[in-house]
Write a structure and sequence with these properties.
The protein has 97 residues and is mainly β. It has one helix and seven strands. It starts with a strand and ends with a strand.
Length: 97
């Protein structure tokens, strides 16, 4: 499992969530909504320091990660983060590893 972040997504997190070098962005499973992988769960994002990292990537000194407790949500898929430029919001795709 890996996290693939586009340049546009990196810029979106910097501009819209005010993240900067030294910050940590957590992708996590949250109860509610739905995703292509699980009904009743959706992907959440928050700025928070990690506890037990399952997978991570770093761009411009910003750590993007998924905790071990949330690895089940990705069910053998890589997380691809891009931006819908018309809506100015991130999009998430799950690609089988």
């Amino acid at each position: 499992m890996k996290i693939v972040l586009s340049e546009e997504a990196l810029n979106w997190f910097k501009e819209e969530m005010d993240v900067e070098s030294g910050d940590c962005v957590n992708f996590y499973a949250r109860y509610g909504g739905s995703s292509p992988l699980h009904d009743g769960f959706s992907l959440g994002v928050k700025v928070e320091n990690p506890e037990e990292i399952a997978v991570q990537t770093e761009h411009d000194g910003i750590l993007f990660y998924i905790e071990s407790r949330d690895a089940w949500f990705f069910d053998g898929h890589d997380l691809h983060v891009q931006v819908d430029l018309q809506l100015n919001e991130p999009t998430y795709a799950y690609e089988k590893m």
